[in-house]
Specification:
Blueprint lengths: L2 H24 L1 H13 L4 H4 L2 H32 L4 H25 L3 H27 L7
Helix pairs in contact: 1-2, 1-4, 1-6, 4-5, 5-6
Length: 148
């Protein structure tokens, strides 16, 4: 597969994660139901803890969505703007960012006993890891001064 293919894969995945972040903000009931079912085996679990707690959880999901969108907009800009002129540096930055997120988020999830969240993270991680690993092979073969 070509470098452009893997770059486009990353752009599509990044766009998908932006949509996911927007869903956390714009479709809170849908995402809350999904997470409640996935992590607590019940779509009603947050509603049972009370209105104030439910509003707090909505705030946390909204903030999480905003942070995810900001992170992915940065990655998207790197993929669209920097990748052409500095593919190795761009790859390093994106890889460091994704691996750091995965280790910290999944590690914390394991500590608090949320294996379901680790599995959820792993799905996203694989979507990034496959093209990043493929690009690594391409970038190692390219001379340092070679631009795409």
């Amino acid at each position: 597969m070509s470098i452009k293919f893997w770059q486009r894969w990353l752009i599509v995945v990044t766009g998908g994660v932006i949509v996911y972040g927007l869903m956390l903000i714009l479709l809170p009931q849908t995402t809350h139901t999904l997470f409640n079912t996935l992590f607590f085996a019940s779509s009603e679990s947050i509603r049972r803890i009370g209105t104030d707690s439910s509003h707090y959880v909505a705030l946390v999901y909204g903030v999480l969505g905003a942070v995810i969108i900001g992170w992915m907009v940065t990655i998207m800009a790197l993929l669209i703007i920097s990748f052409q002129s500095q593919p190795r540096n761009t790859w390093n930055i994106i890889t460091l960012s994704v691996v750091t997120w995965y280790i910290i988020d999944s590690g914390f999830s394991l500590v608090i006993g949320s294996l379901a969240h680790v599995l959820f993270n792993t799905g996203f991680f694989v979507l990034f890891a496959v093209p990043l690993i493929a690009l690594y092979g391409h970038l190692r073969r390219k001379p340092v001064d070679d631009h795409f």
